[in-house]
Amino acid sequence: MKTAFLTRLFVVASLLSLFAFSATEKREHSKPVDAAQYAGSDACMACHEDVYKKQFEGTPHFQTIKKDGHGCESCHGPGAEHVAGGGDKTKIVRFADLSRSEASKRCLECHGQAHAQRNFGSSAHSGNDVGCLDCHSPHHAEVERQLLVKAQPELCYGCHASARADFARPYRHRVNEGLLTCSDCHNVHGTSALRQVRATPGGDAVCYKCHADKQGPFIYEHVPVKTEGCMSCHTPHGSTNPRFLRVSQVNLLCLQCHSAPALGSSGPAHNQSQKYQACTMCHPAIHGSNLNLAFMK
Ligand code: HEC
Ligand code: HEC
Ligand code: HEC
Ligand code: HEC
Ligand code: HEC
Ligand code: HEC
Ligand code: HEC
Ligand code: HEC
Ligand code: HEC
Ligand code: HEC
Q: How far apart are CA 38 and CA 17, in angstroms?
């Protein structure tokens, strides 16, 4: 009894898959084996016309129809059974049921080789269970370009309150005004650098991308600019100092490395009277100079 039933089931199943096989074979001549379970995006449109017309057709992912022919099903998985079940929810990949990392894995099947996203797995975001869908939404993006759930910087402030506080300081990069974005300096998809900070294409500090005049080379380099980098004196986000210094007054910064007693071994005696507090009045070429050893011009 049991074997007869199984045999019959087997025959029916083979016939069915044969039928499905030849149907898809006619349509696209590729990957016949998995194609058997795919219904094709046109089938999805029959019941999900709104999603198709309003949340798919006009988005970059419409290209997935051309690229591998699977469209909707390239993210939601093969949907033939879902269709046959009249929309059985348990027979289709629902992102609401996936963990963040499972969802990201599906996205990375296509985006994982791209230069920008390929380090995602080792990013601070991925490591802290932040996934693609915390920032992107294929169907409900508020920002069409890049399919972001929200525009920067609000997108980032939602999770990074301290960055919001930094950019509320009196002097700051004008990120809130849209002159720069967080992602000008950070690669949110991960880099090998600390703090997910980008480098220039040449591998130099991100700051040089826009402040190339500070790069030199100079005949007289100010050593820490090269050895310790911009952040030894500046904060990257915002500051109470007009030049984004780590300290409120410039002399306090210089004195961290140039001890007061040592100053003036060759030049004037740099006592800490008013006259000598504004160090960069006399040493304006503080990032390096081609003319003067003491950065006086
Ligand atoms: C015969 C009509 C029909 C077809 C064809 C169909 N669906 Fe559905 N689909 C439904 C119904 C009904 C639901 C359940 C809606 C509900 O309960 O909220 C559903 C639910 C879904 C869900 C889950 C939505 C959620 O709540 O998260 C996804 C994803 C989905 N369909 C994708 C597809 C894809 C992809 C295709 C094409 C392969 C497709 N559907 C084809 C009728 C259909
Ligand atoms: C690039 C991957 C991708 C493609 C392609 C895609 N979806 Fe989705 N779909 C998602 C994700 C992710 C969600 C969860 C909601 C979100 O983040 O936008 C979702 C949610 C849904 C839902 C649940 C309701 C909703 O709007 O949230 C339905 C139904 C659905 N998709 C159907 C489709 C259909 C039909 C197509 C083709 C016309 C399609 N999807 C193409 C990724 C995709
Ligand atoms: C079947 C392959 C495929 C899958 C799976 C896929 N994508 Fe895409 N994605 C594409 C293609 C193709 C484009 C358009 C071309 C491009 O920008 O590379 C694209 C574009 C994008 C863009 C850029 C939009 C723009 O304006 O530049 C984002 C963001 C994106 N996808 C996010 C996602 C997310 C999030 C997921 C997972 C829910 C996902 N993708 C799954 C193929 C895929
Ligand atoms: C913390 C937020 C965040 C997360 C998490 C995130 N993205 Fe992005 N993504 C962005 C922002 C912001 C941009 C636009 C700026 C840029 O290009 O860096 C972007 C741009 C993109 C682009 C288009 C530009 C390009 O580089 O090709 C793609 C594709 C993309 N993301 C895919 C993904 C995928 C896939 C994942 C998950 C593996 C993911 N993103 C995770 C915020 C995020
Ligand atoms: C869903 C929440 C979430 C969103 C949205 C988000 N982040 Fe994050 N981000 C985190 C978490 C969690 C970490 C890891 C813990 C930490 O360092 O704060 C992190 C880490 C980082 C780091 C590394 C910090 C370090 O100490 O190494 C940077 C840089 C960063 N995020 C920038 C951004 C930017 C830029 C955006 C917007 C495009 C953004 N994040 C959006 C949650 C988020
Ligand atoms: C001008 C370049 C630049 C911009 C714009 C920028 N960052 Fe940063 N950010 C940096 C650098 C450089 C560091 C590393 C600081 C350090 O190592 O001392 C950093 C550090 C961080 C950190 C690590 C924790 C901390 O505060 O040190 C987070 C989180 C972060 N940034 C988020 C953001 C967010 C969110 C935005 C946009 C609202 C943003 N950044 C805009 C350059 C920038
Ligand atoms: C994407 C371009 C960009 C990058 C990258 C960038 N900056 Fe800026 N920076 C600007 C712009 C534009 C201004 C002018 C600000 C304004 O007018 O609001 C500025 C202003 C400044 C100022 C104040 C100048 C003044 O006196 O007004 C300092 C200091 C500064 N940046 C340091 C840095 C450091 C340090 C880094 C690296 C962490 C960096 N910048 C990265 C674009 C950039
Ligand atoms: C040794 C400390 C120090 C280091 C390191 C340093 N700066 Fe500065 N920077 C200063 C001081 C001090 C000022 C204010 C000069 C003034 O008062 O006019 C300044 C001013 C600036 C300004 C605004 C005024 C101008 O000259 O354009 C920018 C932009 C700037 N720095 C960028 C950078 C960048 C980019 C780096 C890394 C390549 C860097 N700084 C490294 C001390 C430093
Ligand atoms: C992070 C440490 C550091 C900071 C901060 C710093 N310097 Fe320097 N500075 C050095 C080093 C190291 C040298 C190389 C010569 C030396 O060892 O004294 C140097 C050299 C100099 C020289 C040339 C002296 C010579 O004999 O070659 C001058 C002038 C100078 N700094 C002025 C300043 C001023 C003004 C400030 C504040 C705006 C400042 N420095 C901040 C570390 C620093
Ligand atoms: C009124 C102008 C003036 C001010 C303000 C000033 N300096 Fe100088 N500084 C000089 C002169 C002049 C020299 C000698 C230059 C030479 O030898 O060519 C000098 C030389 C130096 C030197 C290198 C020689 C040495 O003695 O080691 C350092 C370092 C230095 N100053 C740091 C500072 C610091 C730090 C401040 C702020 C606390 C400051 N200067 C404020 C005029 C000034």
A: 11
Q: What is the tens place of the pLDDT at every residue in 177-234? A: 999 999 999 999 998 888 899 887 777 889 999 999 999 999 999 999 999 999 999 9
Other C-beta atoms closer than 10 Å to the C-beta of 27 total: 13
How far is ligand 10, taken at its centre, from the CA of residue 283, in Å?
A: 7
Q: Which class for 199: exposed (0-12), middle (13-18), buried (19 or more C-beta within 10 A)?
A: middle
The ligand that comes nearest to the alpha carbon of residue 80 is 1
Distance 296 CA to ligand 10 centre (A): 8
Alpha carbon of 45 to ligand 1 centroid (Å): 10
Pocket probe mutation, ligand 2, options 44, 45, 51, 134, max atoms within 8 Å of Cβ: 51
| CB-based contact 39:79 (threshold 8 Å) | yes
